[in-house]
């Protein structure tokens, strides 16, 4: 707008500073390329005789003219006091890419035919894919060169950026003045000075880039003396930073102090006596534990030796009675001692089984299972029984019902404590290899 007002005053100022915000201009050039692809696809949708490529050249000229004319018309109308375009002017001067996008939508809509509208309702995804593919083709074929689009975008920006926020409106009558200005212009291109960074940006964006540059050296966040790149700060603070908080080496035995890892030597020297006290306590506790274990081991050895001394006598009684153990105990052996002895004997035998041949010689079988070693025997061990004439099947059925809890003689026993294997010929086998310390089995015969 200032350019239009001061045309006469600018007469003779032929040297224009054509610097602008490169990020904004680049965004506008991409919008123009997308607009060309969209208009070309939409204008030929449903037309059997035209393709997007066949109309792209003419569409490019038409699009450039439309953008320049619409931007100039908007500014001229606002100057003449015609229609109220304050909202559009505000958007144009503060958000030029959004303003250009609105103009592009107007142009593309004007180029869409009836068939394109109908097709768009049913295949919007297909339409977008066609636009994307054709846009890539335009860029590959260089159908609208980057420099041409940049010139068009700069001309549009010059028309709508009345406040000079995104481009430099300065003009000069001498080239040396222009050169002097260019070296100081706020839109001049600068390269990042941080080691390793290759970014380029306008001078007005120096602070913006500096605030996010991953290669910028910053003082350590934990206030150590080192300077670290922004991208490496988290790694530095979590690993090698001297000010990283760490626990005392004696943390597990009582010292719960946390301090910077550079202060480790100082901490250990200051609290040496405290650490030694923690160590003494641990050693004392371990010694007490060892003593308890030794005492326990001695008791177990005595109990095992005493029990093992009775195994031979009890085993002989077992064999003499024909796999029968008579449940008579005198005062010499307690109930608990005899149980332990029988368990050890059965464990040494690996398994205990009653064959059908031996079963026929018994008048009565009584199976008693003691799950807990401390359980006292009942007055009568006849919890379940059967007579020989009823046969092996009845023995098997009675045992099965007792374990499953369906018999009136049933006893409750976790399945993990007892394993019955009924083999052909009614061989009742009780494997005590894994459960000998939990089970006591008695087979009592009155023969």
From TrEMBL:
TRAF-type domain location: 209-260
A molecular function (GO) term: zinc ion binding
Database matches in Gene3D superfamilies: Zinc/RING finger domain, C3HC4 (zinc finger)
Signal peptide segment: none
Keyword Membrane: no
Zinc finger (TRAF-type): 209-260
Record-linked InterPro entries: Znf_RING/FYVE/PHD, Znf_TRAF
PROSITE patterns membership: ZF_TRAF (PS50145)
Listed GO CC annotations: cytoplasm
Keywords: Metal-binding, Zinc, Zinc-finger
Protein's UniProt name: TRAF-type domain-containing protein
Species this protein is from: Triticum aestivum (Wheat)
């Amino acid at each position: 707008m200032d350019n239009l007002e001061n045309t006469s005053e600018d007469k003779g100022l032929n040297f224009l500073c054509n610097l602008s915000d490169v990020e904004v201009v680049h965004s506008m050039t991409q919008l123009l390329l997308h607009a060309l692809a969209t208009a070309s696809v939409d204008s030929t949708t449903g037309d059997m005789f035209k393709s997007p490529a066949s109309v792209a050249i003419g569409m490019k000229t038409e699009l450039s003219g439309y953008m320049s004319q619409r931007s100039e018309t908007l500014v001229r109308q606002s100057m003449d006091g015609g229609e109220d375009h304050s909202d559009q002017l505000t958007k144009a001067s503060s958000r030029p890419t959004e303003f250009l996008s609105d103009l592009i939508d107007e142009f593309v809509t004007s180029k869409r035919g009836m068939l394109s509208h109908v097709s768009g309702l049913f295949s919007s995804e297909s339409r977008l894919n066609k636009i994307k593919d054709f846009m890539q083709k335009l860029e590959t074929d260089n159908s609208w060169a980057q420099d041409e689009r940049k010139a068009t975008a700069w001309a549009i920006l010059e028309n709508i950026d009345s406040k000079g926020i995104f481009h430099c409106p300065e003009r000069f009558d001498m080239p040396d003045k222009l050169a002097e200005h260019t070296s100081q212009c706020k839109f001049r291109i600068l390269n990042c000075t941080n080691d390793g960074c290759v970014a380029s940006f306008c001078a007005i964006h120096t602070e913006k880039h500096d605030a996010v540059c991953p290669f910028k050296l910053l003082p350590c966040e934990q206030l150590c003396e080192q300077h670290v790149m922004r991208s490496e700060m988290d790694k530095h603070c979590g690993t090698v930073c001297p000010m990283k908080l760490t626990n005392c080496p004696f943390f597990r035995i009582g010292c719960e102090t946390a301090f910077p890892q550079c202060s480790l030597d100082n901490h250990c020297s200051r609290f040496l006596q405290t650490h030694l006290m923690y160590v003494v306590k641990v050693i004392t506790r371990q010694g007490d534990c060892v003593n308890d274990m030794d005492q326990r081991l001695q008791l177990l050895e005595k109990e095992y030796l005493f029990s093992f001394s009775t195994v031979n006598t009890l085993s002989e009684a077992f064999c003499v009675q024909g796999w029968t153990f008579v449940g008579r105990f005198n005062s010499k052996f307690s109930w608990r001692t005899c149980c332990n002895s029988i368990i050890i004997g059965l464990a040494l035998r690996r398994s205990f089984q009653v064959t059908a041949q031996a079963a026929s010689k018994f008048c009565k079988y009584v199976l008693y299972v003691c799950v807990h070693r401390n359980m006292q025997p009942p007055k009568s061990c006849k919890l379940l029984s059967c007579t020989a004439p009823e046969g092996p099947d009845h023995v098997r059925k009675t045992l099965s019902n007792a374990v499953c809890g369906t018999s009136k003689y049933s006893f409750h026993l976790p399945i993990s404590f007892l394993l019955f294997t009924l083999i052909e010929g009614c061989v009742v086998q009780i494997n005590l290899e894994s459960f000998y310390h939990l089970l006591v089995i008695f087979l009592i015969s009155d023969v």
